[in-house]
Amino acid sequence: MNKTISLFIALLFLISLFFLFNLTSNDKPEPQEENKETEIRAVWITYFELPKNDFENEINNMFSNLCESKINTVFVHIKPFGKINYDQLKIICNIGEKYSLDIHAWINPYRVSNTNSFDKNEYPLSDKIIKTKSYAFYNPGSKEVKEMITNEVVNLVKNYKIKGIHFDDYFYPEDMTKGLDMKEYDKYKGSLSQNEWRRENVSSLLKDIYAKIKVINPETIISVSPNADIEKDVSTYFADVNTWCKEDGYIDWIIPQIYFGYMNETKPFTEVLNKWNSLVSAKNVKMIVGLAPYKLGLEDKFAGSGKMEFIENKSVILEQINDVLKLKEKNDKVIGYSLYSYSKMK
Length: 346
Description:
alpha/beta
């Protein structure tokens, strides 16, 4: 990235995020007055943003910055590829408590590697790991895998000061083929088609986790942040977001990644936001809207004629935050927003 763009992004975030609630310019919308009790202002911290050195001091600095920017909720990526660094998680939780930040443990339940190679000696149940052309991941159709993941989450909730468990959109990989889990499908399918069975594998994992966690601590939040494309969630990732949003017992929060501008030709922000808003109907399910400050200053290459919006409209994220807060006033299912991701707020 050249120096001009870097300075542009840094200045933009300094104005539009860290001083988000202090803006007074007439040509920029002003966010609603904050409500500390009910408004979720969240950020994702990815595994590659976590400090490599001087971990405790760096996390302290990060959380101090988040508090200054009025963030109150943090999704920390503590299991991206099958292993959790529990020592780091303990530090994160302790410092989060110091700053009164709600810490949610962000895990990828199935993913082992972003390539199709892995060391079998490093992972439990390595015989249950399957490979596509692009990924290695635990087989969601394996009952042993389901039990392992559930026990792992139970351990997190029992032993760490976390507010919730968070899953993103990595369930089945995009390049999953029919043959990779045919053995398990033939064994457990019942009357379900393979696609129905795959969706049931993911949903039953969430439902079991939800039930067990609520016994341990009813206040623990279970959340999922799916792709904003509902059809792709259901047909490609086998994430049955329709059921999770309409029936209680799977999740508490749905956080769709609505990473589009207003001018996106095929998925304009307002249209997608309204679609998700209409989907959430379960009594105990709330919606937080995932927003994309990482796009600011960059060409949105899949947006068609709207590809320059995140360059030309310096306040697009601020406008989207205001739209979310206005929707929140009308619908108590909407409780806030989350920003992807921490490094784009510096």
